[in-house]
Design brief:
334 residues, alpha+beta, Transferase(Phosphotransferase), domain 1, 5-stranded antiparallel β-sheet, 3-stranded antiparallel β-sheet, 10 helices, 10 strands
């Protein structure tokens, strides 16, 4: 199933009064205003209600996910929370987690604060590795039936086809951009052939440091909106940063915690750079297909400039070169 994008009119209907009416339709009565949180794909707000509880309400972008796909994500979150894995799962209100108000789907979550996860703290990194291992221990028990699978058609070829004809790419850059994009696609497919047989499981899907909040009691994971069937390494590689030596150290620490709960197939290390390439292409595609949403030009003013597309041509060339280098390897794993 393709992910569809909305029109400008969708979110223009989400006035403060409209959102308050939607929340109050659940017999929950905010005692504060709605504080917008840092989210562009959906509309997300924090508020306090008259009984002292604090919530986060998420209004889902119309047309992006089906009702069944959102419910399946919610069920996965609850399944993880039931295993005492610190995932912020949606609140059940009236026996259900997904609600509808005048055509909009929305959900409420308990508000859980925290500070930025420090990826350079190796003790914290090992702690996160253990919890990702526990998430995958649950995730491998059965696949998603409704949500997407992280495959090249959906996450490489479809966005590439859109970018190849995207009007925002300057004319003088269309040929070099499309040329390196085609080369990158071919190299990704070639690299993936070496990883045949890697199993998919239910994964977080967008497990980057910004979706992990830290408290004195450890991490908690937020926003499983991009959960998919995919390889385990997808939830690990975005924790890596710095030069190759630093990444090897971080990977070693992550896997030390991870493998307390879940086995790891070292062959998946060959997927890191192909997955990074796919994420780069999807990010460009995401900005391009959402450009008719007024929030995007406001928050991403550098997109669609000549300088931006020049930088993307260089970035894709660098990633192409990276795909042609040996993958990360840990001692004793190959």
């Amino acid at each position: 199933m393709n992910i569809l994008h909305s029109t400008n009119q969708d979110y223009q209907l989400l006035t403060p009064d409209f959102m308050l009416d939607a929340i109050e339709s659940l017999d929950i009565f905010p005692s504060s205003g709605l504080l917008a949180l840092n989210s562009y794909e959906n509309r997300v707000y924090q508020f306090s209600c008259d009984d002292g509880q604090r919530y986060v309400v998420k209004f889902y972008r119309p047309g992006r996910w089906t009702t069944e796909q959102i419910i399946e994500e919610h069920q996965f979150s609850i399944e993880l929370a039931d295993q005492e894995i610190p995932v912020v799962a949606p609140s059940k209100i009236g026996g259900q987690t997904l609600h509808q108000y005048q055509g909009f789907l929305f959900a409420l979550f308990p508000c859980q604060g925290g500070r930025q996860f420090e990826v350079d703290n190796l003790d914290h990194l090992e702690w996160v590795g253990r919890f990702i291992g526990r998430i995958h221990q649950v995730g491998q028990q059965q696949p998603f039936q409704q949500r997407l699978t992280l495959d090249t058609e959906t996450f490489l070829h479809q966005p590439s086809r859109h970018l190849e004809v995207y009007h925002g790419v300057p004319e003088y850059l269309k040929t070099p951009f499309n040329t390196v994009l085609e080369q990158l696609k071919q190299q990704v497919e070639q690299n993936l052939k070496r990883c045949a047989g890697v199993k998919n499981l239910r994964i977080f899907g967008d497990c980057h440091p910004g979706n992990i909040l830290w408290t004195d009691h450890g991490p908690h994971f937020v926003d499983l909106d991009d959960s998919v069937n995919g390889p385990a390494i997808q939830d690990l590689w975005m924790m890596l940063n710095g030069d190759r030596a630093n990444q090897l150290l971080q990977l070693d620490v992550l896997l030390e915690g991870y493998q307390e709960f879940c086995d790891f197939d070292a062959k998946e290390l060959q997927l890191i750079e192909p997955l990074r390439a796919m994420r780069m292409i999807n990010y460009m595609h995401w900005l391009a297909k959402r450009w008719d949403d007024p929030a995007f030009p406001h928050n991403f003013p550098w997109f669609n400039t000549d300088n931006y597309w020049e930088q993307q041509v260089l970035a894709l060339k660098e990633q192409l070169a990276q795909l042609q280098q040996p993958c990360l390897q840990l001692p004793g794993q190959f």
